[in-house]
Amino acid sequence: MEYADYRRYDATGLAELVARGEVSPAELLETAIGRAEAVDGRLNAIVRPMYEQARKRAAEQPEGPLGGVPFLIKDLLQDYAGLPTGSGSRALRDLPRPRHSRVVERWLAAGLVVFGKTNTPEFGAKGITEPEVNGPTRNPWALDRTPGGSSGGSAAAVAAGVVPMAGANDGGGSIRIPAACCGLFGLKPGRGLVPSGPDHAEYLQGAATDGVLSRTVRDSALMLDLLTAEPDPGGPYLPARPDTGYVDQAARPPGRLRIGFTTRSPLDTPVDPEAVAAVEDAARLLADLGHDVEPAEPRIDGHRLAEDFLAVWYTGLAADVAHVRRVTGARDTDFELDTRLMAAAGRSMRAPAYFAANHRWNEHSRTLAAFHAEYDLLLTPTLACPPVRVGELDTPPALRTAGELLLRLRLVGPLVRTPQWRRTVTANLAAVPFTQLANLTGRPAMSVPLHRTAEGLPLGVQFVGGLGSEGTLLALAASLEEARPWAHLEPAL
């Protein structure tokens, strides 16, 4: 199959071709591998090729709703039995996993042909994808820019046409941020809907979840149907699923929605005029489609929310680093400096302070619920600025030296309790201040690729829904996709 023909179809369309016998899984796989080999030298999206396993699987003519479609999984939390899940870390790059993650099992059951694992920052802890062990992934739309993170490798591969859809996960924006950077659709499902087993009950106290990045809304809807078809018998929840599937819900008109929008950063940090323009343009389009749209935002203290989110994030990272050290015997030098600093911040937190921060998640959730009692959806920028340049967020040499000294002297704990640390936290989140709200509250949210900057860079807008609003989000996204199509847009690589 020629690449130009392959690129015309989304995953659903490719599966239909296979089902009709118009193309074989092996032909699709070789086209995908050929595209990967043609572009990945410039992108660095795939960090672990799995061509041998994939060719064997394709030859077996896998059946299922997506039978024979090439697919990539993220090298974080998405374990493939017998292969390492590197998590962007030197410490884990050679440690094989004993079994598949539940989501990988469901992707294989759907007939997908997995032929590689994609790049991610160390432990998924950044909104860019520049791990020291693998090197940076680059944005297909502008090679000097980031594809976002932490699912940046998957986003770059989808945007570049290697696959129509790829595995991702989202603990603070890691599906929506790269979707916004790369001109893709990205839906973060609500808490507990997608299983996290068998090694986890839930990720990050339920703030993180698996999903996909895709070029079309219907592919994401189908994937949500497949991932949620059955509850995880060992999981902590029995999630409520709609009476009709998400594909059917996406195909229905969304009805007249009440949508509140804001362009103000919850951290009171600057928002680029392009990000403002993206939301204002989306608001006009929504009004033209018959929705009720007006300025509004939930009454949440964004600074408090960020601190409460990071309290759980840092302590979780500290536990992850400690676990990896126990399992692998890894040394400090096997982890990046920024990871060690965040883990040290987590270790410095006392249990009552951690409990209080996690307890306040309930307050933030109820405040957002009050907003959703009046508005169906919240519209914001996904990013506060266009995709940053690769290397722009590197820790400066002087601060690296200071960080090493603080770690050596065990002074990170006292620093965490200073205004200087809080200012540093705010600065680090300034480019992505809008996405953590949906993670902390467990609400579904999506990034929709409706805007292009004056330089031609993608810049998505975010919609946050109430509990169980995945179907509403998908229906709205499908109507926006019809009004302003994006799947045909392709970077000139």
Automatic annotation (TrEMBL):
Pfam families in alphabetical order: Amidase (PF01425)
The Amidase domain, residue ranges: 27-474
Recorded superkingdom: Bacteria
GO MF entries: catalytic activity
Classification via SUPFAM superfamilies: Amidase signature (AS) enzymes (SSF75304)
PROSITE patterns: AMIDASES
Sequence similarity: Belongs to the amidase family.
Protein's name according to its UniProt entry: Amidase
Organism: Streptomyces alkaliterrae
Lineage: Bacteria, Bacillati, Actinomycetota, Actinomycetes, Kitasatosporales
